[in-house]
Recover the amino acids of this structure.
């Protein structure tokens, strides 16, 4: 297993649109293990392949906060969304930034597992929020895109400055 480097906002590579996974085998299984290890190492609850500069539709998450419920979604698709809920979100690609974001309260998702076997999941709460956030990454979207222009430009300035200082 390996810890991968996480891209930071405003890196343009975070805007890549990920392609569906078509090869299922030991290489994919290894990549999923690496993604999980990188997520746990960074104390995150979700990580998308886009964030480690791999433009493939793979996300991992574990909302248990104890490292006991790793989940992987390959080629995830949201089939249905219901309700609205506002919750605080952060992102390993936008460090130390937490803002309220409005998302669907309940979702139904279809994906395949590491072996390419299809499954569906209905979820709400933190799992639904985290999945929507991670699937956004696969489409090159970040949670800051969902904030007001004012908030977004404040965050952008903070990260531009950090980059200039080489942080
Ligand atoms: Zn994120």
């Amino acid at each position: 297993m390996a810890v991968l480097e996480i891209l930071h906002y405003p890196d343009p590579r975070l805007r890549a649109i990920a392609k569906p996974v078509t090869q299922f085998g030991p290489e994919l299984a290894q990549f999923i293990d690496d993604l999980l290890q990188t997520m746990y190492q960074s104390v995150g609850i979700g990580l998308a392949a886009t964030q480690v500069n791999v433009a493939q539709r793979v996300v991992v998450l574990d909302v248990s906060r104890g490292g006991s419920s790793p989940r992987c979604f390959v080629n995830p698709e949201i089939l249905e969304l219901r309700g609205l809920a506002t919750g605080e979100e952060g992102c390993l690609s936008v460090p130390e930034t937490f803002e309220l974001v409005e998302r669907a309260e309940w979702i139904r998702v279809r994906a395949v597992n590491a072996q390419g076997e299809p499954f569906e999941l209905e979820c709400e709460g933190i799992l639904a929020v985290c999945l929507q956030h991670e699937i956004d990454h696969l489409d090159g979207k970040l949670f800051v895109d969902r904030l007001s222009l004012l908030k977004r430009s404040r965050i952008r300035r903070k990260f531009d400055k950090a980059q200039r200082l080489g942080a």
Notes: The chain has one domain: 12-164. DSSP finds three helices and seven strands in the chain. The longest strand covers residues 71-82.
